[in-house]
């Protein structure tokens, strides 16, 4: 397995985790914390910490996803296969002989058309 394939698998996993973490949150501040009676002074089971954990994990996963994407770009550029174009290679272009057109004898198979009236 190449480096790029490993990075691609990690990117897919991190993107899936990021989607799950974002979907668990509620944009109005409810989300998972409201399920456990969040809101007022009755905070059961550290709901405030759950919200902080979801917020921090969102930022960490997004940062890790960005780093993976940048690292995968490096993995693409330093691939083991050499797939340079021969069209851009001057040595390869000079080795290929160009076809020489051959002169063919002219044949007079056309009939003259009189265009004067």
TrEMBL record:
Keywords: Cell membrane, Membrane, Protein transport, Translocation, Transmembrane, Transmembrane helix, Transport. GO terms for cellular component: plasma membrane. This is Protein-export membrane protein SecG. It comes from the Bacteria. Residues 106-117 have a biased composition (Low complexity). Involved in protein export. Participates in an early event of protein translocation. GO terms for molecular function: protein-transporting ATPase activity. The keyword Zinc does not apply. The gene is secG. The keyword RNA-binding does not apply. It is a multi-pass membrane protein. The chain crosses the membrane at residues 6-24, 58-76. One of its GO terms (biological process) is protein secretion. Belongs to the SecG family. Residues 94-117 are annotated as: Disordered. It is found in: Cell membrane. Its main location: membrane.
């Amino acid at each position: 397995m190449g480096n790029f394939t490993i990075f691609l698998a990690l990117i897919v996993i991190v993107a899936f985790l990021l989607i799950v973490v974002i979907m668990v949150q509620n944009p109005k501040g409810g989300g998972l914390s409201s399920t456990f009676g969040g809101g007022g002074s009755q905070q059961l089971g550290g709901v405030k910490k759950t919200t902080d954990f979801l917020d921090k994990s969102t930022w960490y996963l997004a940062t890790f996803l960005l780093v993976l994407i940048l690292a995968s770009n490096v993995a693409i550029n330093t691939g083991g296969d050499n797939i340079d174009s021969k069209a851009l290679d001057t040595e390869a272009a000079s080795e290929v002989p160009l076809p020489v057109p051959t002169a063919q004898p002219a044949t007079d198979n056309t009939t003259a058309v009189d265009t004067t009236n």
